[in-house]
Prior knowledge:
This protein has helices at residues 15-18, 35-40, 63-78, 89-97, 116-124, 154-165, 177-186, 210-218, 229-232, 240-254, 281-290, 295-313, and strands spanning 5-10, 43-50, 83-85, 101-108, 127-131, 169-171, 192-193, 222-226, 259-265. It is α/β, with parallel strands linked by helices. The protein has one domain (5-313): TIM Barrel (Alpha-Beta Barrel), CATH 3.20.20.140. The relative contact order is 0.15.
Amino acid sequence: MKKRTAVFHTDTLMNKYKDSNYDFNKNNDKFHVDLIKIQESDVKIIFFAIFAKENFLPAGNGLKETIQMIDDFHQLINRTNDLEIATDYDDIKRIQKDGKVAAFLAIEGAKSVFNFSALRNFQRLGVSLITLTWNHKNHLAYGINELANDGLTKKGKKFIKEMNRLNIIIDVSHLNPAGFWDVSKLSSYPIVATHSNAKSICDHPRNLTDDQIKTIAETNGIVGGNFYPSFLTNKKNATIKDVFDHINYIKELVGVDYVGLGTDFDGISKTPEGLEHIGKLNKLQHMMEDKGYSEKEIEAISYNNMERVLKRTL
């Protein structure tokens, strides 16, 4: 059994800076994502995130890096015949009809999105999703490393409205709790946590409480599971079973329609045993089947839930 899949968060655009010989079109054992591995798991939707190191530096906003990586994204797509840039739901259907993968562009940590004109221009350049913070405070909100009573700033609250107007998906992964609750009150669209897990299973600051997961479900949103071992278990190493446990916990808590695959591939230093790269996502589907999940439930988690959110938001 192999079902089509959708992946909500990868840091693959950083690979060329780690290895100048990285070629997206060729199999590369050093990284988690390339075209060959994508095809192995029948990935049909994938998000490529821009992450600028300025997100964790006190000075600068990473604008130069962000512009460079937007160009990297377009160059990556131009060098393959198998992916095409998508910016809305109609693009997904058109691209898949042509037998290609719909590739979306995201910004992780909004330091470079310094005002409304920048926001609108990034949208014109193809940005469809923005993770409001990384782990630290920026001009929009407080990150998870700063557990302040404050969440969104005054500018951040205005940005939520403008992002809704522009149909840019708002990602609450990395936000502190106060920021999460601010977004839940202000956004008119489904709440998305592209790469986060269940705090009740692994008590890590990056994970979501039951109340947060329930709120995401109430907005018809989705939690994309993160594969980083430290977010999966308190043990030294994680396995594919740990990933399944988080998915199953969210399914049992709020229903099968509100959980998907985030992965965080190419942004994590370690992977769970059995899920070493994106080409092994079908093994997770096999585990769901072995655990008694129906075909419809596996399809929902693997693909349909994300497609629903994209249709509503984009």
